Amino acid sequence: MDFLRDPFGFVIQEYTGWLGGLGLPAGWVDIIAKLTGALVLATGAMLFVVFLIWYERKLIGRIQDRFGPNRVGPWGIFQPVADMLKIFTKEYITPIGADKFAYNLAPILAVAAVLLLWSVLPLSVTVVGTDLNVGLLFLVAVGGLGEMSYILAGWGSNNKYALLGAFRLVAQLISYEVPLVLSALVPVMLAGTLSVNGIVQAQESVWFIVAAPAAALIFFIASIAEIGRSPFDLIEAESELVAGYNIEYSGLKFGMFFVAEFLHAFTVSMIFATVFLGGWQGPGAAEIPVLGFVYLMLKTFVVYFVTILFRGTLPRFRIDQMMNLNWKVLTPLSLALIMAMAIVGGLTRELPVFWQVIAFLLVNLLLLGATDQLMRLSQSRKTKSNLPMQPLRKVLTTSTKHGAGE
Amino acid sequence: MNGLQVVFLLAALVSLFSAAMVVSARRMMHAALWLVLTLMGVAVIFVTLQSSFFAVVQVLVYVGAIAILIIFSVMLTRRVMEDHGDQILPGWRAAGLVAGLLFAIIVGFLALWQGFTTMLVELPADADNLLDLGQALVSPQGYALPFELASVLLVAALIGAITIAVDRKEDQHG
Amino acid sequence: MLGNWLYIGIFALVALMMPALTIFIAGILSPKRPDPIKNSTYECGVETVGPNWTQIKIQYYVFALVFLIFDVEAVLLFPWAVAYQLLPLYAIIEGVLFLLILVVGFLYAWRKGALEWF
Hints:
The complex is a heterotrimer of chains A (406), B (174) and C (118). Chain A contains 14 helices and no strands.
């Protein structure tokens, strides 16, 4: 019964007990236990990507009124396996003059940065890689580390289009990191801790998406922009810059970028589900840990489904539209949100939780409504001025008259 | 030599080696990448000091923002792809002598410092001082004034950088 | 706490080794037939024109700068946010004041056109 209630925790306990009984010094037992845990989690994540690729291709196919893969195995389940087998045997074509170190490190770093995100996410009440006390900030920091891999890829390819694509992508990623970090302040305020497990446990009575829907929306949009997915996938679009930073990659090195993107999409959905949708919280999750894992997976798949819906239905943003959205809508909104929620929270400190949540909810909806009105206003002002096309603006120059067109 | 000392030694060696490579790399882009490695080494040293918040902040701000800023600014120069040759100054022997002398003097003074022999109070196993830091940052007996001054400093940096980077003629083009 | 970081260190090593190993194995399994035309830089199927680097716009640098300022601001706010539930009202106002000063800087950047793509 114990095993059924909590299979992961049970296995972990038995394993550490067995290791301890082997008679090794205590420090080594610790290291071997942690090593096994890390190996299992990382391998599980990498193997899970195979399923994710199938899921996404089927879903995109259905959105586009076609079947998606359905030849290889029942419902095409083995299609990604076949693709992986194919990509394993393709030749690595290294361009002349490529910086060997940067060129080879980039795909490894891209996957490693995404895998490292899994180490602090709680999968159930007893199973968590490690309960780091600065977990949320760690997630954002490792995301920033992943950006270095794109710079390495673009610069190491010795190709000016790869370089341009990589810089554009990094400009997009760092721009959207601002509302991401700012809106991540809101659940920290509500939970009073930076540890991800603590944030999940603080959502016992009410999910944070109910208390702060505006923060959830900003966090979600910024996360989708951070993983470079449609509608923010300007960099990857085949019609622009010919696949951007991974032009010169072939074989499994390209496959690794591909795997990193899919896994990142799923991981980001899991982060959103953990921080805003209550993670493993649900009826009976605290007593029966395996239920918590099921709840988390359900919530993550719902968010992942929404991500794929965005990809399949929304048209792509132009880069100036993307930057406008970030700097002129999301950032001011998140700044105003933190200030408003801080003040409201301070004023309603003595009220019972229910009224506090209502107050937060009202503030959020007010701000969202105000933003909507402001956006409509500026949109109507733009169409009223009726310019057929914006005149080409001169590139911003430095005082030494530097700078050239693109 | 317990595990913590081994980790510290490795991190210190990596940081020092990367720092030496930053100043002696032949291409500017390589120097920027070695800088990233140095900053990661410093983050590991923060971890050995049981200061996880600052380790993560180091990665977030230094590697995620400042290193990228430096790489962008390196790319803005025209000669980034050139191999600049061995980065050795003509008077390096004299400079090395002065640096070595200064280092010996500093080490001599530090060896006499009693801070090396006093045992610091060990932090409890699950010390979480983030809460105390937060309260100290805004309490009037704490660091409330430096906290607000920090934001003024940031705004000053922002205004200064934008003034330098954006030409005033841009205003006329609407 | 150090135990947590030990786990993360081990996990980082595992996370780096796994793709490296996979790429290495695939490198063994795949054919190797280098050819000068195959290895040449890609430029939509034609010969490369012009030098192999391009001048990037100043706008990238300005964006990175504004991002840096807001990143440091957010990082300074995180301890305040963690202690939020225990803070008296005046301490909350201090945090809001911090944000307001930065909003002023943000508005300046907006007006000066530092936030335009171009």
